[in-house]
Amino acid sequence: MMYPTLSHASPLAPLPRLPGDEWGTQVQLFEEIFLVFLALGTIVGIVVVSYTLYNAYKYRDRGEETGEYDRPVLGELPTGEGGGRKLFLSFFLSAVIVISLVAWTYGALLYVEAGPSEQGTDENLDVDVVGFQFGWEFEYPNGHTETNELRVPADRVVTLTITSTDVWHNFGIPDLRVKADAIPGQTSETWFLAEEPGEHVAWCFELCGVGHSDMVADVIVMEPDEFEEWYEDPEAYENDEEADEDDVEEGEEAADEAADDEEDADDETETVAGAVVAR
Amino acid sequence: MSDLPPASSVKRWLVTTNHKDVGVLYLLTALFFLLLGGVLALLIRMQLWVPGPSILSGRAYNEAVTTHGLLMVFWFLSPFAFGFANYVVPLQIGAKDLAFPRLNALSYWLYLFSGLLMMVSFFQGGTYDAGWTMYAPLNIPEYSPMVGGTTAVLALLMFVVSVTMGTVNFLVTIHYGKAEGMGMWNIPLFTWSILLTVWMMLFAFAALLGALLLLGSDRIIGTLYFTATGTEDSSLLWAHLFWFFGHPEVYIVFFPALGVMLEIFQTFSGRRLVGRKWVILAMILIAVQSFLVWMHHMFLTNINLEIKTIMMATTIGISLPFDLIVFALIYTLVKGRVQFTTPFLFSLGALLLFILGGITGVFLGAVVLDYEFRGTYWVVAHFHYVMFGGATALFGALYYWYPKMTGRMYDEFLGKLHFGTFFVGFNLLYFPLFLAWETPRRVFEYNVELITWHQLATIGGFIVAASFLIMFYNLYVSYWNGEPAGANPWEFSRTAEWAIDSPPPLENWPGRASYADGSLSFIETPSTTHAADGGQVAEPGVVEEFLEVHEPTETEAVHDEPHEDHASIWPFGIGVGLFVLFLGLSGLHGAELQGPHYLAAIAVGVGLSGYALLGFGFEQFHAPEAAIAERWPFEGIGKTKLGVWFFLASDVVVFGAVIGAFIFIRAGMGWGAWETVPPDPLPGLVNTFVLLTSSFTVILALVAAERKSKRGLLGALGATFVLGLTFLGIKAWEWSYEFSIGIYPQTSIEASVYYVTTGLHGLHVVLGMLIAGFMLYRIYSVDAYLEDHRPVEFFGLYWHFVDIVWVFLFPLFYLM
Ligand code: HEM
Ligand SMILES: [Cu+2]
Ligand SMILES: [Cu+2]
Predict the structure, then answer these.
(1) Which H helix or E strand runs over A236?
(2) Which of A201, B79, B611, B770 is deepest in the core (most CB within 10 A)?
(3) How high is the pLDDT of residue A28?
(4) Is residue B523 classed as helix, strand or coil in its secondary structure?
(5) Ligand 3 midpoint to CA B364 (Å)
(6) Whose CA is nearest to atom 7 of ligand 1?
(7) Looking at beta carbons, which residues of chain A come within 8 Å of B496?
(8) What is the mean pLDDT of residues A131-157?
(9) Which pTM value belongs to this model?
């Protein structure tokens, strides 16, 4: 499969090449960076915490002086102890780790910001997302609108233009690692690419009032040709779908088979989404 | 002036201005709000036991989340830290009290009453429910319609006023009152952390004050600052204002805890801090940088890539000094004799939690990751590790200074039990939240797959709650039955509070503290062994070896006050008055009167606070003041003048926020698209001349006072007063004309901004005239300010400032 790479037509065109060159979807991008951070974070955490505990234990008070030390006394003017060299060495090391980690992610940031090109896909699908108290409206290029249900084709870049009609909301689909603020009077842009058909949930990530907890939308990723069929005439499609539930089941089963363990998780999400929406 | 009753009498606690009493009051009140915030937290956690609504409705849940955040951050964390600061900072620097003890008591009472106001808000149809970040436009009545929401905003406003006064007080205290021989580098680290905290507070809280004034006016008068939805004007205005305060606030709540850790690590390892100077420099760097990172809370808005990049860089930049501090703490243990007492365990625990919080914070600093983490439980877990982790050290501080405050030891076994339960509970509560990070924040729906993590967290929450029961039991029982602690229960303590009795006597020590010969001594001169308040003869109260008696030097002999006051009822009175007044104001919610009783409350409130303010003004009060102290870099400046300067500095930021909001909105809608509100610039121009002239008459007043000419002083100050009155008169005429042609604060965003900004300035003029009127009366009746003309000078400073502000406002609102 081909992943979109940096668009040279974007306003940020003259950018350095990305590490790894092709990061693909935001999911893969996030997974990769998150993993590295997690690994390094865990190592650093374990080292520093153990070192602290080790020292605290090693130098525990045994009730007597084991050497010649100049212990602080009551009433002295506060001053410091020597030992700066070791301090700076550790500081320097930690600074190098932190700076290089974050700098390394900067390329990815540029990539996400620039947005994907059309390479490897048909052209992008542009959807306008409007948050309101308490739900989401999705408007497609052909003028069709849906409330609380976003249907998109698999394997095609979807660009979202997000705003709100009342208060701040934040549109995010955790499974697909996409998220942006929905601010009244302003628009934010972001994009995602779902590789496989399946169902996901979009949540609101900014407190927006009484109904905030229920502000969920279904995200249905469809086989591209099925999507086209729906897109041509959503109403007819939905009538069909009701008439013949089995078709959908079959389609999903096919998707399941193709999927690996990770996608299994998505299935369970479906039920949650169903439960949430049913309420 | 009144005498201070004994500690067993209730009256004592209403009138006391002594820093140790006030410190204790702060601590107890803060612990009360911890309980309140804790109960709310448990409600939230119970709701999260299974996904979906259970015990709380959607609104109640939002209220719980919001007030939990507000109470914990504002009414628990900082005041708890300032309880210790009140008690310990004067002792550590060798001062007898804070610079302005009555103002300190006033800070406390405003804090308490603002908290009570917050509690009342629950009963006004529902309290605030728009999150502790109060994002616009959810924060205006249209979207958060409860009267209680307005009350909560007013409560916060009152709290900020309290903080501002406390800030000025601590700044002057530390900069002005350090014992002889204690230079800046020698300030004990807890005091250093408080000093930097108040410096940050001075500016950060002023920005919040500005933001809250705008919000309050939107909620009460119905102005349109945060209503302007659908236009680009102000959708980001609140976010900028709030986070300009909000990020420094993170360090404001953390620094005192850091100071405690630095102090306790030294005491219980028997080592001085490694790299002390570097640690201090790192803290200064953090304090400065904290004002340069606020937009990292807005990575998901449409701010552009360049700004995101800068903010990302400053964010990493600010994390590095923390690395240094953490390593300094760790290396301090090396070669130490580490004693695992309860305070040390809590500090060590705090360090470990902070390390975890810091590492998970680096994740958020990487913008691409932040895109996914924002608004999720990753953030919730992270900031609890940092903030509540910091609070962990403050509980250590409670055990550390408990023997000093009560004279008795806490129970070590129960203390360790508290720590064990707390630490296990804490990690059970918050670590699973990292694993459940995909859950959106402030939501009670979540993916059922994550239920295990959420249920573990809820169990952890109850364990944490239980651990505090152990603490309260321990502290209560030990208060009555604990072993006597003596002056210094810790083997390696260093700072001055351990060189005096536990609890310390009212005036801390006889004579004055000094480090002139490199270590602490209390220099007693025969004339200072006078009777203290309450008729008792001052006990030495000091570990013998530190006592020195010598003949008074010339400065000492001149400056030694015969009698120092420690009691005043007026701060309490002002607190009550403002409480009633603010409660009344909440009834104007949404520009509509909610009932006649609210009007009555406003009237009573104005009367009460006016009466109490007058009482405060007329009271003779001698604060203890050291004649000899380290004052770099403010040597030549008097105590009160320094206070006035600090206050004005914060006021500059308040106006900066309000004028900044104007510029932000105007730039947003296109500079030229703004319609100038006043139909005619002439009244404004006349007023400009009026005010400039009044600045001149104030100078004349000072000259007259210096010449001890009563008539001249009365004339010049009187002229200032009349000019102020003229200014207000013209303004009133101008406004009534504008009203008559249909321009109200609610009419348009331009009108809102015009009325609020110039109105805020007008309030400053009114305040100045109240002071001037008070001074005129005193000159007339008791020939005041002829001997000591400094108050005239301070008034002049304030008045010039108010005039200068107008010089900016006039062209901005009338000509451009
Ligand atoms: C010093 C102590 C604490 C501080 C400073 C603190 C601070 C905060 C803040 C600022 C929020 C965000 C509120 C908002 O989003 O508007 C919050 C949320 C929360 N806190 Fe605490 N908290 C503390 C202790 C606790 C304790 C003891 C518990 C549990 C028993 C707890 C559980 C929670 C929960 C469940 C949330 C809601 C998260 C959400 O839905 O966004 N907190 N806390
Ligand atoms: Cu929402
Ligand atoms: Cu921040």
Answers:
(1) helix A234-243
(2) B79
(3) 84
(4) strand
(5) 10
(6) B69
(7) 75
(8) 93
(9) 0.92
Among protein residues, the one with the nearest Cα to ligand 1's atom 1 is B388
B442 Cβ closer than 6 Å to some ligand 1 atom: yes
Q: Is residue B327 part of a domain?
A: no
Please provide the DSSP assignment of A81-132 as one string: BS-HHHHHHHHHHHHHHHHHHHHHHHHHHHHHHH-B-STTSSSPEEEEEEEE
Residue B560 has pLDDT above 70, yes or no: no
Q: Return the structure tokens found at B187.
A: 């300030």
- Segment B61-94, tens digit of pLDDT: 999 999 999 999 999 999 999 999 999 999 999 9
Fold of A125-232: Immunoglobulin-like (2.60.40)
- Per-residue model confidence as pLDDT tens digits over B349-373: 999 999 999 999 999 988 889 999 9
Relative to the CA of B443, which ligand 1 atom is closest? 40
Given a cut of 80, whether residue B622 has pLDDT beyond it is: yes
B77 Cβ closer than 6 Å to some ligand 1 atom: yes
Percent of chain B that is helix, strand, coil (3-state, to 5): 70, 5, 25
Give distance in angstroms: CA of A216 to centre of ligand 2.
9
* B436 near A CB under 8 A: no
Q: Is the CB of B44 under 6 A from ligand 1?
A: yes
- Considering only B413-417, B519-523, B623-627, which range has the smallest mean pLDDT? B623-627
Mapping DSSP to helix (H, G, I), strand (E, B) and coil, where does residue B755 land?
A: helix
Using one digit for the tens of pLDDT, what is the confidence trace for A23-47? 667 888 888 889 999 999 999 999 9
Q: Any idea which ligand is nearest the CA of B131?
A: 1
Give yes or no for B548 touching A (CB within 8 A). Answer: no
* Centre of ligand 2 from the C-alpha of residue B236, in Å: 17
**Ligand 1 contacts CB of residue B380 (under 6 A):** yes
A174·B438 Cβ contact <8 A: yes
Cα distances (angstroms) measured from residue B59 to each of A202, A215, B127: 21, 14, 10
Q: Which tokens belong to B545?
A: 């070896």
Task: Retrieve residue B391's tokens.
Answer: 């609070």
Give me the residue label for tokens 């205006």: B140
- Is there a domain that residue B428 lies in? no
Backbone angles phi, psi at B267, to 5 degrees: -65, -40
Does B431 touch chain A if contact means CB atoms closer than 8 Å?
A: no
Is B729 within the bounds of a domain?
A: yes
Number of domains in chain B: 1
Residue B553 maps to a domain? no
Pick from A34, A80, A183: CB nearest B277: A80
B719 pLDDT above the threshold of 70? yes
Mean local confidence (pLDDT), A228-242: 84
- In this structure, chain A runs to a length of 279
Is any ligand 1 atom within 6 A of the Cβ of residue B41?
yes
- The bridge status of strand A125-132 relative to strand A157-164 is parallel
Other C-beta atoms within 10 Å of A277: how many? 14
Ligand 3 centroid – CA B251 distance (Å): 9
Asked if B60 has any chain A CB less than 8 Å from its own CB, the reply is no
Residue type, B789: H
| Domain assignment of residue B779, given as a range | 675-816
Give the residue extent of every domain in chain A. Answer: 13-57+84-117, 125-232
CATH number at B681 reads 1.20.120.80
Question: Token digits for B556?
Answer: 């000492």
Identify the band that residue A68 occupies on the pLDDT scale cut at 50, 70 and 90: confident
- Is B310 at the interface with chain A, CB within 8 A? no
pLDDT, tens only, B723-773? 999 999 999 999 999 999 999 999 999 999 999 999 999 999 999 999 999
* Interface residue B314 vs chain A (CB under 8 A): no
Residue type, B126: G
CB contact under 8 A, B235 and A185: yes
- Say how many Å lie between the CA of residue B393 and the centre of ligand 1: 18
pLDDT for residue B17 is more than 90: yes
Which chain B residue is nearest to residue A202, measuring alpha carbons? B440
| Selected residue with higher pLDDT from B227 and B573 | B573
